[in-house]
Write a structure and sequence with these properties.
This protein is mainly alpha-helical. It contains seven helices and three strands, in the order αββαααααβα. Helices cover about 70% and strands about 10% of the residues. It has a three-stranded antiparallel β-sheet. It starts with a helix and ends in an 8-residue tail after the last helix.
């Protein structure tokens, strides 16, 4: 299991980077206008239009906390049993909010499809972001389990 942590953690980090930069969805309105916003684009757009609180809230839960959790997981995976490992287990509750973006995009896609005024299609950014959230949870669980089992025991020589 310890051998899986490093590649899964790399995949989670790579997926997160792609998830925030690639388009989350494609929205076509009236067959003339099309948009493919990424998570970064959404945050910046909200900021520029004066929705600072919403922009900061999404940035905190979609960028800040996942980056912090990935950083702490990297430190914990390196074998540090210090504050990084303890903080990682405490971030479990907050990390669940990372899926909020995925749910919001799903609601927007559903609303656009049912309104008849626009069509929306999920794009790779959404899937990479969701993959990152799932892999981060898996790695976090593996590190917690590794911590609970203690360090490997050497047999008699």
């Amino acid at each position: 299991m310890r051998l899986l942590i490093a590649p899964l953690l790399f995949a989670a980090t790579f997926s997160f980077a792609l998830g925030i930069t690639l388009p989350l969805m494609e929205v076509d309105r009236l067959w003339l206008f099309s948009e493919e916003p990424s998570l970064i684009t959404v945050i910046l757009s909200l900021w520029e239009t004066g929705d600072w609180a919403l922009s900061m809230l999404i940035a905190l839960f979609s960028l800040g906390l996942p980056v912090l959790k990935l950083l702490l997981l990297h430190l914990a995976a390196l074998g540090s049993n210090g504050p990084a490992t303890r903080l990682t287990s405490r971030l479990h509750a907050l990390a669940r909010w990372s899926m909020l973006d995925v749910i919001l995009v799903a609601i927007v896609v559903f609303a656009a499809k049912t309104s008849g005024l626009a069509t929306a299609i999920s794009k790779p950014g959404l899937w990479f972001f969701a993959t990152s959230v799932v892999l981060t949870a898996v790695v976090s669980s593996m590190i917690d389990q590794k911590k609970a089992n203690g360090p490997p025991q050497d047999g008699p020589d």
